What does this fold into?
Amino acid sequence: MVKEMEEKQVALFFGAALHDIGKVVQRATGEKVRHSKVGCDFLKDYTKNKEILTSVAHHHYQEISQSKIADNDLGYITYIADNIASGVDRRESEEEGNISWDTYTNQEDIFNTFGEKTTERYYKPVMLDDTKEYNQAREENHKFSQGDYAGIVTKIKDTLTKIQFEEKYADSLLNMLEGTLSFVPSSTNTKEIADISLYDHMKLTAAIANAIYEYAKEKEITDYKEKFFEKAEEFYEEEAFLLYSFDLSGIQDFIYTIVSSGAQQQLRSRSFYLEMIAEVAVDNLLRENSLTRANLLYSGGGHAYIILPNTEFARTAIEKVGQEMNEWLMETFGAKLYFAFGYTHFCANKVMQGNDPKEYSKIFRKVSKQISEKKLHRYDAETIEKLNRGGKKEGRECRVCRSIDNLPEVDEEETSICQMCKNLEKFSKDIQKEKYFELNEQFGLEVGKNQFLKVVSEKAIKAGEVKGKIYVKNQFATGESIGTHIWVADYASEKDIGEYAKMETVIRENEKLGIRRLAVLRCDVDNLGLGFMIGFSKQNGGKFQTLSRTATFSRVMSQFFKLYMNQFAKDYEVTIVYSGGDDVFAIGQWKSVIDFAIKLDDELKTFSNHKLSLSSGIGIFGGKTPVNILAHQTGELEESAKGVDNKNGIALFSSKFTYSYELFVEKIYNEKLPFIRNFFNNQNEKGKAFIYKLLSLIRERNEKERITFARLAYFLARLEDSMKKDDKKLFKEFKEQFKTWFDDKENAEQLECAIMLYIYETRKDGEHE
It folds into this structure.
């Protein structure tokens, strides 16, 4: 039976999650008293719960040391959780009156302290708005105004009037804090770097506080004052926490296993389906541990990181959820999907400022190692025997995924489709347009044991007709039922996936030419795993490597690949099939996919201040190519791209066209291709034969290395002699530049790629190379 949060623990969550709310109010009103008092007075209009108000009023050393609160008051837990989330012990730090404050400073970019080089960029003083262009950090520093904060406070007030301080409103509170405080700095102390948002700090404080509460309960700690205040230094060394992570293994094979050419519409529903399996797994574990989504550090692409208490109950719950997930996955999918998880204990000092970066990274490495080992040894002998016994060994195959299980009894081969594919096909019809999904125990698409997902309307939710848990896709929502929002990169142009292979290319305004093909993009972030482990350890002796920065880094990366990508994909004829925490699968009109890949790489570099990059593979295919072939061949190209020195590679069409992004964009896409295009667009039909002859000469030069420069020169000279006088000037310029490139091996190889791109832009279907 899933535990419900105790009344005191609910109060602790709200008190810890709102402990710094006074900072926002204070910056809006200009009050000259401590933010803890301002916050407490502000919340009295919305709750009379003394334990919540105490956590808000007494979470700093000076205040709590002078208070007369009981030894078991929750304020002591909020106090030490605040210290751990901040990464510093404030007992010996100067109090607010003796510190230099820049009250209206705006938030610094989290990437300023990431990587080897310190940078200075700032966010605009705005609220997070899923309907507007994302807030890109820039070098310009536009500070907050008192009016900016007044607007934020108004939004907070509006939300607080709609919720109650009860467990069922926990997600709504977190939604509100994310929407209003994602770009509000937690600290305005001029001696600190203001790169942690108030949202991230308050959320992490709530996560740590509730983990401590569970830890204290199992250890039968009742004197919170002694344990977490008077002997705080000792507790910082106590391994009271667990870092837990899971990986839904086989996720990409499941998405791309479709073999029928006409089933591409299922791609996006399969992707969303597996995202929801992972989200439900997260919530199952949190509910088992009486925790909220505040404890979720990161979720995306079938991966997750969660902070848990280091208790026997938590460890038992981890094993229970893992076992139940794998039993359900095996019953439903056989060996296709596997839930690999790992966890390790850590103490606060290992994740606070001043930690040993090696010890910090070791926490993540231990968890990663456990997950890898589980993947290598998925099943015991009993489970393997069960897998061998279960399922049919022969028979008709599903025309979509080639499974032979769960097929209906029909006579016509062409109507054969397994129950899972049938459910996904039904679910996929309006997957992009739908926003609200209910998790219930009876009806819909099964996403866990006795857990089903179905589409519901906002009208039904507001009418109180929906009883299950609600997930809201790609928009903020508050309220009792409208609880958990999830970001999903699901942009799709108005074209159906099958139409991409029928589209021509727009070369000039009102002129469409070119080969009709679709392309697939597969890419992922280079060395993202190291970013979690050591991303902030390379500056200032590892001073910036703290849990709060890892949490912020996790959030912004998830937002980039799930929320922001939808925004800048709108200019392209593409469909984002899958976008996890670090990898992307997109399909679209072939030229648009290349343009989108360039845009995606450029946006990620801008977003991370050139501290992160992509490796990408792009394959080009006919419209009837089965999805599994699209995915497999493009995956091979992606692997080829990863072989580029210093990563950030792109491989197009075949492994021989593998370059760094910088080289491809600068030397091929923006130099040689426009050069070729500008010349041949002015030629008549004779130019087509000419371009194919040049391609033949280039290939002989590149592949066989026996073609002489003189042969090219002779060919071009003869062509020039046959031209009219007016055409010779333009041709001479082309000839000299082409010969220069041809004479250099690297430029010649680039030239072949540029010519191929031009031919694809202008060639008609059925026309040979």
About this structure: The longest strand covers residues 241-249. Residues 7-105+144-166+182-235 form one domain. Residues 696 and 752 are 9 Å apart (CA to CA).
